[in-house]
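Hey forum,

I'm writing up a methods section and want to include a predicted complex as supplementary material. The small molecule is 2-acetamido-2-deoxy-beta-D-glucopyranose. I've pasted the protein sequence and the SMILES. Can someone with a working setup run it? I'll credit the forum in the acknowledgements.
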Amino acid sequence: MKIAQFSFCVITILVSECSCQEITYKNVTFFDNHMIITTTHQGRSLQEFLPDDPVESLTILGTIPVLYKDAIINVSNVRELHLYNNKIEQIHPEAFKNLVGVELLEMKYSDFITIKKGIFNDLAIRKLIVAYNHQLETVEEGAFDNPHIETLELTVSVIKTLPKNIFQKMAKLKTLDLTGNLLSSIPPEFLKLGLESVYFSYNRLTSIPGGVFTGHQTLQEVNLADNNVSLIDSSAFDHMLQLKSVNLAHNKLTTIDPEWFYNSSSVTRLNLHRNFFEDIPDEAFKNLHGEVEKIVLSECRVKNISCGAFKGIKMVRSLDLRMNEIEKWDAGFLTGLKEIRSLMLSANKIKCPDGDFNDVFKAEYTYVGLNPLDVDCLEKIEDWMKLESSKGHVVCTEESCFD
Ligand SMILES: *[C@@H]1O[C@H](CO)[C@@H](O)[C@H](O)[C@H]1NC(C)=O
Ligand SMILES: *[C@@H]1O[C@H](CO)[C@@H](O)[C@H](O)[C@H]1NC(C)=O
Ligand SMILES: *[C@@H]1O[C@H](CO)[C@@H](O)[C@H](O)[C@H]1NC(C)=O
Ligand SMILES: *[C@@H]1O[C@H](CO)[C@@H](O)[C@H](O)[C@H]1NC(C)=O
Ligand SMILES: *[C@@H]1O[C@H](CO)[C@@H](O)[C@H](O)[C@H]1NC(C)=O
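Reply by user p_vandermeer:
Happy to help. Structure tokens for the complex are below, copy them as they are.
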């Protein structure tokens, strides 16, 4: 009796210790969209908890210190898989395997420090989001040798550097989002051909040398906002035939280089909001000679505008110069600019624009609210608006036209 009890005890301890090592799921809840599927006491592999019916969006909530081998394998009826707030510290190299039909895999709010080589390599997913993992600082070489992923978001972590050629084997990668890390440079080899959009906002970039983006043949969108960029090489964005949108807002640029965007004539959106340009030089945007949707120069402390500043632009839908320190606005500034829909000059220091109002207000809409316009000037504008020649042009002098 005693011996039997004793051996039963030993066996129980052995059994539980052995299985404990590999139990990934303990007190974890599974949701289909927002509906609870089940809360589990324990289990090793996700498919034990899945219903037979297809699941559109599966969320796994609860603490999972380790994703053991086989934790997420042989899943075939889930489209999106969200691992959310799991505080995962370790991921076994064989934790993910054979996910057929899973399009999106997302891991947010976990505690792992490293993405190890090979974890994601065999997954036929289209989108991988690894975000808000505030301890994540290291990505091993080979971590993303995946030929299927089209969108990779590796955001809001503490990555300072990435290994050379880390994205080279991602044959289908089109969108790369590294927003919110601590990167201080963009190694040129990141920008493999095929990429269409790259996001580097909220990093620690201070300069954009030539050669990083120059000549890239597929990039359409480059977001470098919210860094500390104070220097951009003249040739940084040259010969990029597909480039459409460049966001440089919230940086430390002090000069606009008229040589930027040489032979990149598809650029249609340029955001320079919140930089520190006192001057807008002659022909500042001469290389943007396609149909430009918008140029944003708001809150840039602009004071001095050169006479031919906007010469060379054929057509611009919106030129945004709001919230600067412009005192002098001259009809001449718009000469050489063929067509402009919306000119935003609100919140500057203009008392009255100089020159022929037919030229000053050549835009379809000109916004001059929140300027210290003097009474004479307001009268002059009103008189001009009554003229036949002002037809088709609206001038808004009110605060309510701020936007
Ligand atoms: C299970 O998890 C919930 C919420 O995550 C927690 O409130 C509860 O205390 C846990 N139960 C056990 C037995 O750990
Ligand atoms: C996963 O699927 C493979 C192939 O169908 C099978 O050999 C393996 O036993 C499965 N593993 C688990 C844990 O279900
Ligand atoms: C920019 O530089 C300043 C100091 O010059 C620093 O305090 C700030 O954190 C930096 N910002 C970024 C986004 O790196
Ligand atoms: C413009 O860029 C394309 C592609 O990089 C290149 O083939 C072409 O020679 C360039 N044209 C000029 C005028 O530099
Ligand atoms: C304004 O810019 C022009 C040309 O860039 C320069 O010649 C002029 O001195 C500047 N004026 C002021 C007041 O800074």
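Some notes you might quote in the supplement: The mean pLDDT is 92. Residues 23-182 form a domain with the Leucine-rich repeat, LRR (right-handed beta-alpha superhelix) fold (CATH 3.80.10.10).
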